[in-house]
Amino acid sequence: MSIDSTELITSDKNPSVKLVKALLSQARQRKKQGQTVLEGVHLIDAALRSDYPFVQILLAQSAHQHPEVQQVLTRLPTHTSVLTLSDALYEGIRSLGTGIDIMGVINVPVPSLTVIDYDCLILNDVQDSGNVGTLLRTAAAVGIETVLCTSGTAQTWSPKTLRAGMGAQFALTIYEGLSAQNILECVKAPLLATSSHTDTLIYEHDLTAPTAWIMGHEGQGVCDELMQCATPIALPQPNGQESLNVAVAGSLCLYETIRQRRYS
């Protein structure tokens, strides 16, 4: 690593500090800059384990001697820029509560879309960052490596979604900002979508072939354009509830898929 300056940064007018503050709080700036912020040791560790490069590391002065921070600093590539902020300045820009005060700036990956004829997860305007992060984490856990997101879906690389996903993003190839037409053109695996308007229960449907599960908007569900091309699948709800939370429904679908293939 390289410490950019022995001088302690105390001003919020510093260009790096201003950028990080904007990236933490504004989706528009993250999209414009093509960058995001990893807060805390856990997310930075996830990026390091995936050999993902950092643009910059920022940490509070008091965090320098923390054992976990010391370990992170020794694992950084030698060219990585590291800035030390006063404790008061760091506290003024962080979005997390009390913890280990270190964060890293990374470039958001933008993979090129290709034909997908294998397992994938499609997030169709899932708006809540917590739901998106949970679905990404579940996908990574069951071995699905490809996620496609329509333009109304919460940013998968936002600080909030990164925390909800616990860094699962680094185990996935994620396509964002897609239209329903983009998805229909590139995804060749059969489309499946949960629906309350079908008698086909998930436990009766063969999920052993490559599958593209679609999870829809929290209130409106899967859009008509995608639903018309998908096989509707029902999750049994014998107690008569109206619907399941999308992250719960998605997790059930993904785990039933892996159960049929490995544990039936």
TrEMBL record:
Keywords: Methyltransferase, Transferase. GO terms for biological process: methylation. It holds the Pfam family SpoU_methylase. The keyword Methyltransferase applies. CDD domains: SpoU-like_rRNA-MTase. GO terms for molecular function: methyltransferase activity. Gene3D superfamilies: 3.30.1330.30, 3.40.1280.10. Residues 121-255 form the tRNA/rRNA methyltransferase SpoU type domain. It comes from the Bacteria. The keyword Methyltransferase applies. Residues 14-93 form the MRM3-like substrate binding domain. Belongs to the class IV-like SAM-binding methyltransferase superfamily. RNA methyltransferase TrmH family. This is RNA methyltransferase. It comes from Psychrobacter saeujeotis.
